[in-house]
Amino acid sequence: MIDLLGEDEIKKTFVEKYNANDLAKFLKLAKDFIIRRGLWREFGEKKLDLRAEIQKFSSVYTQVTKWTKSPLQVLSDPDSTKISEYSPYPKEFQALIQNKIESFRGREFVFKQIQQFIDRNSNGYFTIVGDAGMGKSTIAAKFIWDHKFPCYFNIRSEGRNKPELFLESIRQQLINRYWLQNAKDDNLQTLLQKVSDNLLDDERLVIVVDALDEVEQEDRDKNLLNLPTTLPNKVYFLLTRRPYIADNKRLYTQGVPEEELDLRNPEYGDLSRQDIENYIWFFIQENPKFKDSLRKWIEERQIAAFTFVEQVAEKSENNFMYLYHLLPGIAQGEYNDLSLEKFPKGLKEYYQTHWRRMGMDTEPKEKMVIILFILVEISTPIPCEMMAKITNQDEYEVEKVLDQWVEYLKDQKVDKKTCYSIYHTSFLDFLKGKRDLKKTRKLFDEVNQKIAEYFIREMA
What we know:
Elements lengths: L1 H4 L2 H12 L3 H14 L3 H6 L4 H15 L6 H6 L14 H10 L7 H13 L2 E7 L6 H12 L3 E3 L9 H16 L9 H11 L6 E6 L24 E7 L16 E5 L6 H17 L5 H10 L4 H12 L3 H12 L14 H12 L8 H13 L3 E2 H8 L3 H10 L4 E6 L2 E6 L2 H8 L5 H22 L1
Parallel strand pairs: 1-4, 1-5, 2-3, 3-4
Antiparallel strand pairs: 6-8, 7-8
Protein name: NACHT domain-containing protein
InterPro entries: NNH (IPR054610), NPHP3-like_N (IPR056884), P-loop_NTPase (IPR027417)
Keywords: Repeat
């Protein structure tokens, strides 16, 4: 790619189009040049994304135009550290995407079906449906990572699940990726048409939207997130959501191809089971943090590794979130007193077993339960200081509680403060279910009273 950008014709054209703020035109001219030189097939074989390479180069060019080094010299210099690394992923979701794919395994049957849908149709909506913990968000993250498409993750616990926030994020991603002009106030339909008009012949735009079921939207007569009823050519949406009833689908279209892949479908059972087993094998054989401890646990009980994988996979009910919690728990000694046969079955039973083993239904743990319920009721990330004021506890005591539940919580910086929220919707739903139990209903009432009193004090 550097050799290509070093060609006099390409350099001259790039500078001209860069100064004219017309890199979309340069992209097409660059492709024509590559084809004339007989190099396009080589680009395909090396899986080079011409648009992404030009974006990367233009980012460097923008930063070094006032330097003595040329952009090409900067790109060629492995010791250059003054350039901030270009990323095709939106900053707001980059850490989430990287975290999701860290231990990713399998799901090839899903990606194959997505690609077949794109190949068969000139546009369309493809939806992945599945229960909590079946890996929908991770599939979305892996697809984004591999293809560098625009994306949006709806996250209820962070308040990042409203149509206006979705449009703002996608608009900026499309402007940046496709060099759209005069688009800062465009609606989604207009943005998609502009992109479609500027795509190369072999390009496709796929916008990935995760967790439609977490969207908050008052207008029920419109599509969730105001997704368009029609789509331009070469434009697709990859959506994920939990199972729904027909009245809650809220994806009205006019002549747009639609397809769903339901991960619960028995026809995918064996394929999902194989992916689950591969995931467990990865933890035993390759995971640098947990493999030694897991092997030790297995060997001490004189269990064959194959038997362990098979029985844990069966217990998981093809749920990756179950394994996400259980396998590290085994490695960290949390299940030393349980035999393999006594492991909880399924994600919901796992949560209840962990809750019971932590003694959360006993009076000494009541303060800990209250802190978790505060996170449920406020539903947006809040700092430790705020939880301490609500509960009239010392911050140190609150921090100790948060540390004990660290794998179930997400921390993030908000206004330079570390704030906490529930990590996964499935655990949030588990905690919400405690409202219906007589024993914990009173605690929820107490929590809401404490929250109300806190806000009254703060407003005084």
